[in-house]
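Translate structure to sequence.
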């Protein structure tokens, strides 16, 4: 006859639900890429702001 299933000890059960990293180093690589993208965005933003300021200086003030 079949035995009824015994309960799994809590210590073993908890291990089933522990987080793990399927790809080692992925989070570090993503963090590096995020910093790289932020720096590129800042440079682009600064260039855009400089261009906008130059355009403001060239504007003509109409008296009306």
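Result:
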């Amino acid at each position: 006859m079949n035995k009824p299933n015994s309960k799994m000890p809590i210590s073993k059960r908890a291990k089933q639900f522990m987080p793990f990293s399927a790809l080692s180093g992925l989070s570090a690589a993503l963090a590096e890429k995020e910093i790289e993208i932020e720096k590129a965005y800042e440079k682009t933003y600064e260039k855009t702001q400089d261009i906008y300021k130059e355009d403001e200086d060239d504007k003509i003030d109409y008296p009306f």
